[in-house]
Every structure is written in structure tokens, then in C-alpha cells.
Structure to design on (199 residues):
């Protein structure tokens, strides 16, 4: 059967005007990851920290948007056999005039590999809203970061994944990513422990 429904998609840099939608995406990600106890971001704190520096020199966010109408000549067209129902569409509309809805995002920042003697990107978040999953949007977001890394001559893109998220692990393996947990363990300092060591 030929697909009878289409969505036009694009990826763009987030702007300060997107903070309310970014906040909601982050909260949904915290719920999905069972990490709401760690979630303390607010719209105000995001506004104060996300857009202080030029894109790709600090934390950067790509938003993935869709519309039933063409947006730009470079839109990617997603063909669906059935119409997609988005129960939160009104919450995530970013452009009412053109009927544009945010469906996911990826946040990332530059790092450096001394072994490669090259910069790279570390992905902090990659999230697609539930009703848009398994339609290629996650791959589009990951590919956008990879494309930017290649464009800048960077050596790698890296990220962490929760060990129970089998769908994400399978997805990353299909993208050609390799697990390195047999060599490294992720550590961090935060909250009271960070403040104590920093005294």
C-alpha cells in the first residue's frame, strides 16, 4: 500500500523563544528516564544558561519540527500510512501560521580528545516525543550532530545511554556506534559533593 500521509520536517537551531518548549521536552525526558528526582531546571535557569555563547562553542540545541505543509526547499518528507495523532500538539506548536510543531531535540557541547588531538561533541540529551518515535526522527537528530562534527573537522561524537533502554541501545548500534563501557566508567561530581570539593 502506498503511503497516503506526509509530514515535512526540518532541523534548526533553538533560540531563546524556544525555552518553554525546551523545558517541556526536558521534563518529559526526565519522566521517561525515571529521573524526575534529579530534575531542577526551570524556564528561567534555561534562559540564563543556554544562549550565552555562539552555537557550537558551548551547549547547542537542535530542534526537529514537522508540519503538514512544506517549510523550506530542503525539507525531508516523512511518509506515513496512517495520520499521526499528537495529543500535545497545541503545547508544542512553534509557528501557528505555518502549522509547525516541535517533535524532538538534541543538546550537545564541544569536548576534546587528547588521544585523537581533535575536538568532538558530547550529546547531553536526545529525545523524541512519544507519538513521533520509530519514524526516523531520532536518526535525523543524531545525523545532524554528526554532520556538524564532520563539517568542523571533529574526531568523534559521544554520549551515554541508560542501560535499561534497550530500544535506544539497539538504535545506536544500528547507527554504527560502539559501546565503550568495558573500558570506561562514567563519574560525576554534583550538588553537595561538588561544592565540598570546590571549597
Amino acid at each position: 500500500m502506498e503511503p497516503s500521509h506526509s509530514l515535512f520536517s526540518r532541523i534548526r537551531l533553538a533560540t531563546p523563544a524556544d525555552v518553554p518548549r525546551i523545558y517541556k521536552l526536558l521534563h518529559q525526558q526526565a519522566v521517561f528516564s525515571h529521573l524526575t528526582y534529579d530534575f531542577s531546571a526551570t524556564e528561567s535557569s534555561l534562559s540564563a544558561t543556554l544562549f550565552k555563547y555562539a552555537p557550537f562553542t558551548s551547549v547547542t540545541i537542535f530542534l526537529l519540527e514537522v508540519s503538514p505543509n512544506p517549510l523550506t526547499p530542503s525539507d525531508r518528507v516523512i511518509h506515513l500510512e496512517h495520520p499521526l495523532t499528537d495529543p500535545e500538539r497545541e503545547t508544542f506548536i512553534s509557528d501557528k501560521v505555518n502549522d509547525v510543531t516541535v517533535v524532538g531535540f538534541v543538546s550537545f557541547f564541544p569536548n576534546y580528545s587528547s588521544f585523537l588531538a581533535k575536538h568532538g561533541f558530547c550529546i547531553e540529551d536526545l529525545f523524541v516525543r512519544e507519538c513521533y518515535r520509530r519514524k526516523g526522527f531520532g536518526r535525523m537528530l543524531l545525523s545532524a550532530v554528526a554532520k556538524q562534527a564532520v563539517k568542523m573537522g571533529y574526531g568523534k561524537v559521544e554520549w551515554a545511554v541508560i542501560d535499561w533502554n534497550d530500544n535506544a541501545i539497539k538504535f545506536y548500534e544500528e547507527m554504527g556506534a560502539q559501546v565503550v563501557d568495558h573500558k570506561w566508567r562514567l563519574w560525576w561530581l554534583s550538588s553537595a559533593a561538588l561544592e565540598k570539593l570546590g571549597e
Summary: The helical segments are 19-32, 43-49, 89-92, 137-151, 166-174, 191-197.
